[in-house]
């Protein structure tokens, strides 16, 4: 089918970011958003959606509630529409499963008429509007919003290996082979690595003969989910971060990694308890090594095995390990989509990062009426919260306000506990110097 109609806004990618944008734009007549998704569904990290996987954010951090809690696209309304609100509140009083949020996203995508199985091939500009060529023809758009998500990261030493015995954690449920009697190497020290480790030890696909877990340079670090660290996911902190000089942003971002790259204390306890049970309470025959603070520096394939080079970051020594299967829980990285190649020379980029404004608008040399926005690819300029689900609704509302050139959604009302003084220099201690916007005099906050 050839598409020659012109839409106000074309959102490329049907993940949570652009679902949020379309949901918040739905009641606004002046912002018409069409969403295209290359896959046949909007499944959210399907390779990690095993039973029992939990959402790390509050259910209130859905597509819309933090901006418009009365929206029909809220998670609470999803539960109500499916007749399970009360049962959910009883069964999930302290957490929400990722599987249920995946169902919620699929429901929202259906209501929003997301165009599935339509891959974007190229984006160009004809002088008046964007010309977006897809596998179903051509679309015209006044503005575009890129929400293609981050790409699975594969270490350089493994990029040339194409084997069914090696896979990224994002493919674990789809690609995971029976591990019974195998020597399995798991690489990575984040939440996904922890979830894969627990799955490999569960016996779901058999039990390994030997399990080696290489956790990366920082070892097994618990996720920092404390209240004051969670202030980094407050819109007020994003605005503060955005105004810092680039060199200060980079240093601060590095110190905030503990809020996104660790493993929850609960999951660490589950893994430790499972290893204890296998060692002392069962006849598993499993041997295991948890190499906290080791890195994978080399990987080669033989006809029957892999040979891995493992660097001990404490002693600086390297050892070899033979294994049958390798799972890379090595995270994700932002990417510049190949379909943007026709416009690549018209917008400044640094490495794999767009140059963006405070409203997530990508700088380019085209007409002001034709705008490019980016979702989930501006951590370098907007802080650690940009790669998480927690601020998806707020970010979408910022983009909508920018498209309208006026404030449709009120975004300045919410407060923050940590005081932010934009006139104060950034210190050299463990965190930023955050002083002064609230003075405390006589025990009374001003």
CATH class of the largest domain: Alpha Beta
The helix fraction, in percent, is 10-25%
Return the average pLDDT rounded to an integer.
88
Count the DSSP helices.
12
The name of the CATH architecture of the largest domain is 3-Layer(bba) Sandwich
Protein name: L-lysine N6-monooxygenase MbtG
Pathway: Siderophore biosynthesis
EC number: 1.14.13.59
Biased composition (Basic and acidic residues): 435-446
Write a short abstract of this structure.
With 446 residues, this protein is an alpha/beta fold. It has helices spanning 16-25, 75-81, 85-91, 98-111, 172-175, 191-202, 227-230, 235-242, 246-255, 265-280, 379-382, 392-404, and strands at 6-12, 33-36, 120-125, 130-134, 137-146, 151-152, 166-168, 183-187, 210-214, 287-291, 294-301, 306-312, 318-323, 325-328, 332-333, 349-350, 353-354, 372-374, 440-441, 444-445. The chain is 24% helix and 20% strand.
Fold topology:
Elements: E1 6-12, H1 16-25, E2 33-36, H2 75-81, H3 85-91, H4 98-111, E3 120-125, E4 130-134, E5 137-146, E6 151-152, E7 166-168, H5 172-175, E8 183-187, H6 191-202, E9 210-214, H7 227-230, H8 235-242, H9 246-255, H10 265-280, E10 287-291, E11 294-301, E12 306-312, E13 318-323, E14 325-328, E15 332-333, E16 349-350, E17 353-354, E18 372-374, H11 379-382, H12 392-404, E19 440-441, E20 444-445
Parallel strand pairs: 1-2, 1-5, 5-18, 7-14, 8-9, 8-14, 9-10
Antiparallel strand pairs: 3-4, 4-5, 6-15, 11-12, 12-13, 16-17, 19-20
Helix pairs in contact: 1-12, 6-10
């Amino acid at each position: 089918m050839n598409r020659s109609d012109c839409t106000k806004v074309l959102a490329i990618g049907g993940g949570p970011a652009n679902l949020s944008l379309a949901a918040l734009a739905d009641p606004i007549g002046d912002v018409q958003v069409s969403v295209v998704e290359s896959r046949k569904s909007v499944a959210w990290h399907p390779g990690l959606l095993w039973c029992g996987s939990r959402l790390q954010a509050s259910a209130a951090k859905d597509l819309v509630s933090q901006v418009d809690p009365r929206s029909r696209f809220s998670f609470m309304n999803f539960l109500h529409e499916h007749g399970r609100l009360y049962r959910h509140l009883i069964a999930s009083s302290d957490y929400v499963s990722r599987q249920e949020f995946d169902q919620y996203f699929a429901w929202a995508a259906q209501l929003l008429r997301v165009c599935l199985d339509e891959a974007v091939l190229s984006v160009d500009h004809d002088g008046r509007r964007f010309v977006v060529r897809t596998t179903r023809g051509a679309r015209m758009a006044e503005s575009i919003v890129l929400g293609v998500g981050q790409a699975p990261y594969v270490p350089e030493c493994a990029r040339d290996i194409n084997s069914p015995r090696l896979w990224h954690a994002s493919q674990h449920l789809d690609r995971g082979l029976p591990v019974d009697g195998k020597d399995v190497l798991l690489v990575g020290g984040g939440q996904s690595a922890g979830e894969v480790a627990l799955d490999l030890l569960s016996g779901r696909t058999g039990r390994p003969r030997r399990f080696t877990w290489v956790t990366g340079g920082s070892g097994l670090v618990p996720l920092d989910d404390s209240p004051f660290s969670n202030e980094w996911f407050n819109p007020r902190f994003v605005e503060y971060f955005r105004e810092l000089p680039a060199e200060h942003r980079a240093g601060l971002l590095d110190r905030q990694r503990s809020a996104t790259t660790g493993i929850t204390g609960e999951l660490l306890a589950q893994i430790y308890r499972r290893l204890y049970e296998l060692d002392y309470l069962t006849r598993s025959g499993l041997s295991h090594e948890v190499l906290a603070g080791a890195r994978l520096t080399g990987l080669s394939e033989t006809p029957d095995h892999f040979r891995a080079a493992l660097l001990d970051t404490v002693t600086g020594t390297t050892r070899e390990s033979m294994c049958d299967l390798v799972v890379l829980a090595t995270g994700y990285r932002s990417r510049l989509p190949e379909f943007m190649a026709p416009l690549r020379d018209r917008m400044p980029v640094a490495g794999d990062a767009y140059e963006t404004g405070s409203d997530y608008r990508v700088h380019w040399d085209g007409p002001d009426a034709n705008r490019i926005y980016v979702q989930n690819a501006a951590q370098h300029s907007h802080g650690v919260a940009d790669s998480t689900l927690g601020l998806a609704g707020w970010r979408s509302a910022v983009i909508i306000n920018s498209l309208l050139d006026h404030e449709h959604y009120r975004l300045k009302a919410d407060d923050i506990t940590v005081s932010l003084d934009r006139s104060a220099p950034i210190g050299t201690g463990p965190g930023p110097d955050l002083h002064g916007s609230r003075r405390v005099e006589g025990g009374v906050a001003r």
